[in-house]
Amino acid sequence: MKGYIACLCVLFTNLILVRGVRLNHKKCGNGFFNPDHETCCDGIISSPAGWPCCGLATYNAALQVCCDNTPYPKSAGTACCKNKPYDPLTETCCVDTLYPKPDAICCDKKLINPETELCCNKKIADRPTPYHKCCDIETYHPLLETCCEDTLHAPGDLSCCKNEAYDPREHSCCNGVIISPGGLKCCGPIPYDPNLQSCCYGIVRKKSAEGGKPCCGATDYNPDTHTCCKGILHTGTNSSCCGQKTYDPKSDCCEGKNINGLDCCIDKAYSKTTQTCCGGNVFEGPNLHCCVKKAYDPTKECCNGVNKIGLMCCNNKAYSNLESSCCKGIVHEGPNLSCCGQIPYNPKIECCKNKSASGLPCCGDKPYNATLQTCCHGNLSSPAGNGCCGKEGYNIKESLCCHGQVVPKQAHVFGICIDKTKLQGMTPKPIGPTPKPIATGFTPKPNIFLPKPVASAFTPKPNIFMPKPVATAFTPKAPVVKPMNDHLKHNIIVRLLTGVKNFSENLSSPQPMDIHVVEDDSLFNLSRYETKGSCRRVSDQVS
């Protein structure tokens, strides 16, 4: 049972690892690659990412040219003549042969003089006049001869019926067959006179005296409301026919042609000077590159992780590693930066996730020397050992932090902070219990030892057990007051019984707090402060 559970754990772990690789990487041959750092070249993983492939490896398109899967330095040429680099500004490549002449015209592997020669079906032919054209491997003058499917006929004003020439004034051509008389049209393989007959769905019909409605296939139709294209009826009359379909000749093409002379992007008309055609789709902007069926600017974008002008790719965005850096698919200004997630940083002077490359502690996003500086909530101050007042550092020997502000120490009582706005109506009171009043007279209790008086004329002797008479009035002695010390005028004890909120930054609960010994009476003048809490003061006592 334990072995079975262990096998399941190993299998589950392997599945997680494989799934993790497939989620973060892409397939390349028999392995996987990271498109952020690598490039797949014909099933072989190469680096760096974003460079184009030349054979089975990447190459620097800014400095090299790839000829027949071999990279060459651009100093040898910027274009390829089969497997050799060459300079188009000084040479011409004809198939696989180089000629030391720029902008020449090739005919297969040879150069021709376009003023005296024509290249007809890969053969060099004479060009007696500028009007001569090619007919198979020969040249001819269109005014003197007619070329029908690579066959020359005389004279030059004839029409072609397949490879035969005919005079359209005398004959007609129906499905490759020359018929007479001339001026006829074809209804399938059958010639007919359009002045007297109509062709409907391959059937020749005789027109009525009124002319009748034309037919579209086997159906009559009104040409004022419909258009017929080779037997198929379409609603509307603002379109032209292209085979059996209608099209707008102003914006579309028919069989690769546009009546307004525009270029064709399959069946759409466009202008090469302002637009780009990619896979049958028209995009605004000239000279863009195509990535399958989409257009892109290679100075700003990449196609499937590859840039054709040698720039680096960052999440399909093109950038120069001499000017920018890529962090997890985002391009940032500045070269040779390291990444902290999606954010670039300079490891020499900045921290990433509270860690520095130098091993120093971090203050915010900056490393610092703790023996020379103090960090206060992301702000640095000198020297080390300063206190923090919010984000500000201060000298704890000379200053205090009072309610978020640094103030001189000598301006405050006992070196602590007091909120003057909360000190009101302070009244000094004596400390300790109130002394009991001293009796001014005394009446002694009857003495149990005093014998009762005897009713006689006998006068007894004084009783030794009788107490002496007690004074009927008592005057306490005045307390002895020692002279006050020159260095200590008062020994003051201030006790906050109710607690003053925010009395100091370190007092967070309204507990009583004793503050002892003030060596200079000028530091604490009760008349200067007011408090809502009760204060008690003992003065003029000499310690």
Topology, element by element:
Blueprint: H1 2-24, E1 26-28, E2 31-33, E3 39-41, E4 44-46, E5 53-54, E6 57-58, E7 64-67, E8 70-73, E9 79-81, E10 84-86, E11 92-94, E12 97-99, E13 105-107, E14 110-112, E15 117-120, E16 123-126, E17 133-135, E18 138-140, E19 146-148, E20 151-153, E21 159-161, E22 164-166, E23 172-174, E24 177-179, E25 185-187, E26 190-192, E27 197-200, E28 203-206, E29 215-216, E30 219-220, E31 226-229, E32 232-235, E33 240-242, E34 245-247, E35 263-265, E36 268-270, E37 275-278, E38 281-284, E39 289-291, E40 294-296, E41 312-314, E42 317-319, E43 324-327, E44 330-333, E45 338-340, E46 343-345, E47 362-363, E48 366-367, E49 374-376, E50 379-381, E51 387-389, E52 392-394, E53 399-402, E54 405-408, E55 493-495, E56 514-516
Antiparallel strand pairs: 1-2, 3-4, 5-6, 7-8, 9-10, 11-12, 13-14, 15-16, 17-18, 19-20, 21-22, 23-24, 25-26, 27-28, 29-30, 31-32, 33-34, 35-36, 37-38, 39-40, 41-42, 43-44, 45-46, 47-48, 49-50, 51-52, 53-54, 55-56
